[in-house]
Amino acid sequence: MIIAACILLFMTFFLGFWARRIALGKGRNGYIWFVIGFLFGIFGVIAAALMTNKKPTHIVNANGDPVIICHHCGKESPMHLNVCANCHYGFGKDYRLP
Ligand SMILES: [Zn+2]
């Protein structure tokens, strides 16, 4: 009985961390998605896998300047800004080019 409870606890933590890992890869809140994966198990992981990517995308615009496409509003912002020039959505440091 105790072994079954330990396996169940391990599985719920595993699914929580799995959902968190997918969410962080998509620029989402890892803490919230850990709880979702912990509570809803494989359904939380599936939900994390199905959600859209919120991370900004780098491109070079028509003038040859590197810009970031904001996933919050869809507008272009110069690379040197930490927030979107249009909606002020924070990009974070993980989107930066090496
Ligand atoms: Zn924006």
Question: Can you describe this structure in just a few lines?
Answer:
Helix content is 45%, strand content 11%.
**Secondary structure: helix percent:** 40-55%
Heterogens: zinc ion
- What ranges have pLDDT less than 50 throughout 5 or more consecutive residues? none
Number of strands: 3
Order of helices and strands: HHHEEE
Q: What is the topology, as strand order, of the major beta sheet?
A: 1-2-3
In terms of DSSP E residues, the strand content is 5-15%
Going by helix content, strand content and strand pairing, the class is: alpha+beta
Largest sheet: 3 strands, antiparallel
What is the global morphology?
rod-shaped
Number of domains: 2
Q: Termini, distance in Å? A: 51 Å
Number of H- or I-type helical stretches: 3
Tell me, rounded to a whole number, the average pLDDT.
Answer: 86
Q: What can you see in these coordinates?
A:
Helix 2 (30-40) packs across helix 3. The mean pLDDT is 86. It is rod-shaped and about 65 Å long. The protein is built from 3 helices and 3 strands, in the order H-H-H-E-E-E. It has a 3-stranded antiparallel beta sheet with strand order 1-2-3, with no helix packed on it. It has 98 residues and is an alpha+beta fold. Helices cover 45% and strands 11% of the residues. It has 2 domains: 2-50, no CATH class; 55-98, no CATH class. Strand 2 (66-69) and strand 3 form a beta hairpin. The structure holds zinc ion (ZN). Zinc ion binds at residues 70, 72-73, 75, 84, 86-87, 89.
